[in-house]
Structure formats: C-alpha cells, structure tokens
Amino acid sequence: xxxxxxxxxxxxxxxxxxxxxxxxxxxxxxxxxxxxxxxxxxxxxxxxxxxxxxxxxxxxxxxxxxxxxxxxxxxxxxxxxxxxxxxxxxxxxxxxxxxxxxxxxxxxxxxxxxxxxxxxxxxxxxxxxxxxxxxxxxxxxxxxxxxxxxxxxxxxxxxxxxxxxxxxxxxxxxxxxxxxxxxxxxxxxxxxxxxxxxxxxxxxxxxxxxxxxxxxxxxxxxxxxxxxxxxxxxxxxxxxxxxxxxxxxxxxxxxxxxxxxxxxxxxxxxxxxxxxx
Length: 277
Fold this sequence. Notes:
Layout: H1 21-35, H2 41-56, H3 63-78, E1 82-86, H4 88-93, H5 95-104, E2 109-111, H6 118-130, E3 136-137, E4 144-146, E5 156-158, E6 167-171, H7 175-183, E7 187-191, H8 198-202, E8 205-207, H9 211-225, H10 230-238, H11 242-254, H12 260-276
C-alpha cells in the first residue's frame, strides 16, 4: 500500500453526507499536522486509541466531564500561575481554541514534547503564533530547565512556565510526567479519554472527554466563572470527587452496549434505503 499523499487526504474528498464526515475531517487535520511537522507518528496512533474510547462515550460530553471542567476552571482561577502544556496533536487539532482558552484563564502556552526535536518545537510555536498566541514558552533554550523524577524528553520545561506553575493543564500526557508534576506540589488538570490511564488516575482533576469538545467548553465556563468570588470558586472545587468522576466515565462506557440495538436499526435502515435507490 502506498503512503498517504496530500491528494489522498484532501478534505475535499470527504462528502458532507458521510456518516463519519466529522471524524474524517479531524483525522485529516492530524495527517496535515504530521505533514507540516507538528505531529509525531506516534501521535496518529494515540488519536486512534482515543477515538475508540470516544465511541464508548457516545462521542459526546458526559455530565460528569462537565462537572470536572467546572471544578478544574474554578481551581485554575484560584491559582496564581496556571500554564497550558501543548503538544503536536493539540496544536494540529485545536490551535485557535487553545489560544482562546489561554487568554480566558490568563495561562501561557508551553510546548512540551515526548518525541522532541528542534524542528517540531519551532513548527508548533509557529502554528500557535499563527493562531493568535502572543507568546509561546518551551522553545527558548535559554529558559530551559528540568523537571525532576523523569528521564525522557518531557522533563524539559520552561523556567517562566511549567517550572514555576502552581497548576498545569495537560492533554495527551505521559503518566510519569503527571506524577512528577504532582510530586512537585502542582495541581494537574488532565484531559484524557481513557479513565484508567496513569494520567487520568494521577491528575488532580480529570476530564474524560475529547479535547475537540472540551477546550471550547472550558473557555465558556472560564468566561462565566471569571466574575465569581473566591468563596464561590472554592465551593465548586469542593464538590469535585476524583474517584466518582472516573467511575462515572467507566459506567457510561460500560453501558454503551445499550447503543447496539439502535445502532443496528440505523444500519439496517441504511441498507434498505440503498436497496431501494
């Protein structure tokens, strides 16, 4: 089989009436991000794994995820030095949206990569600046320092950003860095479609959702919560139960078998409709 070319992955080939058109467009963004040097090969695989979990969620944001977003935003607004950690998939999928969230919560963006190369760092910085970011941390080598407790490339952090942060928003994260961030007495907000991943388990707050949906929602919540006083924000945080959030996501996924009957009916109707064409 030949490698994918730009022609093969052109969005123009995705018809609007395709039942998976939105999913295909998202995949196209990732492939385009790979071709532009943003996304690592492993990032393509990671997306496919996450999409499988999203199927089990019904490809929608569940109520417990919304509660986790509210608690996360409340805690971010209570902190003094929030930072958003960005990798290639995030820069390829939601560049404008992550910049909007950054502005809403006054949190700088910092490039942090497992498969790190100078070329990828610069490509991601360029993509974020092109999406409206005023500054992108994690690229200037003169501000690079190391996070203790891990040996791989994600240990490198910016002394103006994650190194001094009191809360870090991470997406598509490595569990060992989440653990290292927690061990450094930082709050960690994770967005992860797998409620049993080490990142989901180790986070202070975990949002089990697709970042395509969650990032814009978090911006809306932040714009609403910015007017709340400290006591209100603390009350929202106090309602968060990490264990219950993860258990509810698993419950929803476990109950996804109930989708089989209506999905079968939809497919049967589609077959019959094609026969009559």
